[in-house]
Write a structure and sequence with these properties.
alpha+beta, Cytochrome Bc1 Complex, Chain A, domain 1, 3 domains, 3-stranded antiparallel sheet, 17 helices, disordered N terminus, Peptidase_M16_C, Pept_M16_Zn_BS
Amino acid sequence: MYRTAASRVRALKGQTGYRGSARYATTSVVAAKSSSGGFFSRLMGEQCSSLPSLNFPLKDVNLPPPLPDHVEPGQTRITTLPNGLKIASEMAANPVASVGLYVDCGSIYERPASYGVTHLLERMAFKSTTNRSHLRIIREIEAIGGNVTALGSREHMSYTYDALKTYVPQMVELLIDCVRNPAFLDWEVKEQLQKLSADINGSFRDPHQLLLEAIHSTGYSGPYANALLALESAVNCLNSTVLEEFVAITHFALAFELPGGWLKEKDAIILTVLQMLMGGGGSFSAGGPGKGMYSRLYLRVLNEHPQIQSFSAFNSIYNHTGLFGIQATTESNFAINAIDIAVKELIAVATPGQVDKVQLDRAKESTKSAILMNLESRMVVSEDIGKQILTYGERTPLGHFLKVVDEITRQDIAKTAQKLLSSPLTMASYGDGNYIS
């Protein structure tokens, strides 16, 4: 077929006379010396024009000097102001700066009268201040091509502003104004309360988020039981007065050194490696090509039980405490079996000799890979600096965490898993509970 098509094209070219044919022949000879052409060029009886080789430097182009063999990463510098405020900065080659303001403020500081206020405070970020209207704030951010975000968690509230380094003074000034001088206008609060209700309704479509909140409310009896997502019953109790009182109470730092969580660093890192070791994912995808395919839960559970749609380990580590467990999605009539499987898998990693060296080494390499890849993101680096300053008062070098990961042994994994099993068990379920007894 292709040969017939090429013949017809040549026949059409031939109808234009000897001059056109000669031009066609001459062009072919010249092009043949420089390029063989592509498939469609040959099909049409033509040849590709030549391109300069990329194996040789171009004329009159000055290349920058190559980087040395070893380049030290930027060092974090911490400056403490007379009022006690700590400023942590790190130089990066990126032309964009990420400025963050991190506060010891979250749902663990909420009182019964202010449940859900952290969720509302996150929504009220970068709204009107005593010095600027919301419209002016938006216009100033747009004028420099900036991007702002706010995120509330159980222990921290973060405000970040990204833009070109040239505009750092403007970024800092606007960020401080938005955090220190919020106006909490009644009409803006009412507007965000409506969006809060929409967030709550949308959360019912995310069973994983609901289960995580249920685990916290059941597993803890103190402030960590406070819901991060506002409850529908609490929305009607929230207003600008509640916001003002919460900000006045919580926007300063109090530190109590208690055992557990990130303050017990090695145990927290072992839990992270244990999560990687157990792994898991969905029956269709583990999150990307090859991710988690050789983890224990994927090989021993998802590959063996088609009734299970997803089965994965999770952890939530805070400054003073943490949670570790297994989250599963399965057919209702298989739920009780899935619970038994989860318990058996936790017992297995707590049993000495059940985790071999190959599995542990793979989990340790995956942990280090996840840490390093996450720190390639400018926003993650900014968040990491802020949260480490709040937790430790300084930023621990990256090499320290990688060294701790390398030093973890199979005995450490078994010992930590045994600690988990000796603590009170918490379980939450969402869906048809008739099959769970």
